[in-house]
Structures are given as C-alpha cells and as structure tokens.
Design brief:
It is an enzyme of class 3 (hydrolase). The protein is mainly alpha-helical and about 100 residues long. It is built from five helices and no strands.
C-alpha cells in the first residue's frame, strides 16, 4: 500500500495552517476554529456511515477520503503529527 499521498496531504494541511492562503479551504476551516473542525469531522463521519449503509462502493470511497482528510485537518489543528498516529497503529499491530 502506498501511503506517501497521506504524508503529502498532511504536509499541505500543515503548510496551510502555518502559511494561510486566502483561497484555501483548509486555511479557511482552520481560521474558523477548532469547533468548526470538530463539526466538519462529525459531518464527514456521518456521511461515510450513510454511504456505507447505501452500499455504493464509489460513494463509500469518496466519503472515506473526505473523512480521512478532515481527520488530518483536526490533527493539524491540535498539533498532532500524522506520523504519531501511524506509530500508534504500528504498535497495535500484533506480529503473526
């Protein structure tokens, strides 16, 4: 599995946090504050569940990407590195 895109996207999100751009969705969302970010993660999570219940594979993929993206924005807003989440997942992986 190629996870390079996740690192790339997270770096862009952090850049928008540190160097806001007027036309940037991420900059705008972060400027609205943590509560707005939390609400967006909640909304995207609900949309993912609805898509999964509907069963359309393409819609599930689309909504999963939205949910993952907004979780990454939340992590950046809270100053949590994406790599730390990856390390936590690795710790949970039990050797076979």
């Amino acid at each position: 599995m190629d996870t390079e895109i996740l690192d790339e996207v997270f770096e862009v999100i952090k850049d928008r946090r540190e160097n806001p751009r007027e036309q940037s969705y991420v900059s705008h969302l972060l400027k609205e504050g943590e509560k707005a970010v939390f609400e967006k993660v909640r909304e995207e999570s609900e949309e993912l569940i609805e898509a999964a219940e509907g069963g359309e594979r393409s819609e599930i993929i689309h909504e999963a990407a939205d949910a993952i993206f907004h979780v990454m924005v939340l992590l950046a807003a809270k100053g949590v590195e994406f790599e730390d989440v990856m390390k936590e997942l690795r710790k949970r992986r039990k050797p076979r």
